[in-house]
Design a protein that fits this description.
Elements (H helix, E strand, L loop, with lengths): L22 E5 L2 E4 L4 E4 L15 E6 L8
Antiparallel strand pairs: 1-4, 2-3
Length: 70
């Protein structure tokens, strides 16, 4: 196949952040296929590590971050 797709749903209520939905979150998704050594990112990281939030894409319209409940 010359393409692939994924669809997933994350219920915002599961994040329990409250507040207005005007925030921005950094986000990335990776697909690795060991056969053929394929490694694909939604937002390329151009780094040896995929743990580089400064290179992630931005999701807009997300709940604003609030301090965790105690």
């Amino acid at each position: 196949a010359d393409r692939w797709s994924i669809e997933f749903a994350l219920p915002l209520a599961a994040f329990d952040r409250g507040g207005e939905q005007a925030g921005e979150w950094v986000f990335n998704v990776t697909r690795q296929r060991k056969a053929g050594g394929e490694l694909v990112y939604w937002s390329p990281v151009y780094n040896d590590s995929s743990h580089s939030p400064e290179t992630f894409g931005i999701l807009t319209g997300m709940p604003e971050h609030t301090a965790p409940r105690k």
